[in-house]
Amino acid sequence: MTSRLKLPSTRALRSSTTRPSTSQFESNLDVKALKAQRSSLNASVTLFELDEPRFDSRPAKRVKLDSDSKEGVLDCEDSVAKKHKSTKSRLPRKAKVSSSPQPAPVKWRQAYDLIAEMRYASDGCARDAPVDTMGCDIAGEGEGLEGEDKNKRFSILISLMLSSQTKDQVTHAAITNLRSSLGGSLSASSLASAPLSQIEESINKVGFWRRKSEYVQAAAVRCRDSYGGDVPKTIEELLEFKAVGNKMGYLMLQSGWGLNSGIGVDVHVHRITNRLGWHKPPTKVPEETRVNLESWLPHELHPKINHMLVGFGQMICTPIRPNCSECSLSSVEGLCPSVKLTSSSPRKGKQVSGKAKGDVLTGDLMAGELEMKEGNETMLEAGGGGPSIKIELENIFSGSRL
Prior knowledge:
Layout (H helix, E strand, L loop, with lengths): L3 E3 L3 H6 L6 H8 L4 E5 L7 E5 L10 E5 L8 E5 H5 L24 H13 L9 H5 L14 H14 L5 H14 L6 H6 L2 H8 L5 H19 L7 H4 L7 H12 L9 H9 L10 H11 L5 H14 L34 E4 L23 E6 L5 E5 L10
Antiparallel strand pairs: 1-3, 2-3, 4-5, 6-7, 7-8
């Protein structure tokens, strides 16, 4: 391929006020790399031919000389790649938790007693919650009355590890499948020696089941080798297990060992206590909620509040559209500042359609809490003919407990 470049005529150059020199032409046009010849049509026109076309579509490269190399090896880096930051994983920032004691909220005891009545009274509206029959604290009952206590405690630990971002019903079914696949008993030794594929097949309905399969087997190996098949009974030792945090650790100590070492705070406890206005200012993370609650809640109530509020959150004070009309707190002024009673007439605001239950979104929505529906999608429509928003979400995040 030959490229031709037409230069201005000599007559035109003479008429210019400043005549460029030959060196200027050579520097600007790289004449040394061109092959010159006279035009056959006009003798005053000189044509230049490129020996090779200089069209390069590749991205520009930045070349730097490696000063340490004696042979002068060139180290080339694409300038485009240099613009992108490193994708190296970063450790999550730890939330700042205030350790200063907080005063007890006004009327907190009255609200607590009313919630307990709704949960445990024979005619309570929050009775028979999923946590009452399929919660992690009763996972050990599957070992039977004659089962070893250490296997019951180990079952509770595995159930807690599987319950993260998974509903109680799914977690309970996974524990049942896992115990059945291991011969009827869920022990540290049997789980530690089981093939990983067998564990994955048994728990593949829970959220993040592939990763959790590795975590529970690693926990089984640790319990077998370091604790004789049992579960440690201190929070410090439990926190050394991968994927076990403060919430799981304190619940394990309460349910497995009967130790009152701290409050297990999950999304329900975090959400409901903030809706009740028990934190001033509102807490942002469950760990901050735990520290605040432990500073003023009577010590004898620490093991009870999680189970009570989890069932209350599953039945009444749900993440989206809480049943405030059925809640006893709504009839007493000042107990719940977030109460919003749903009227019979349509109201303006966000409407729920599709598979989401109900019509009106009421109550305070905590960050990151969306009610998941079967089919992995929830439809939100703005009232008054506004635009509709379709949100598709993975159902593995639909857990009732974290």
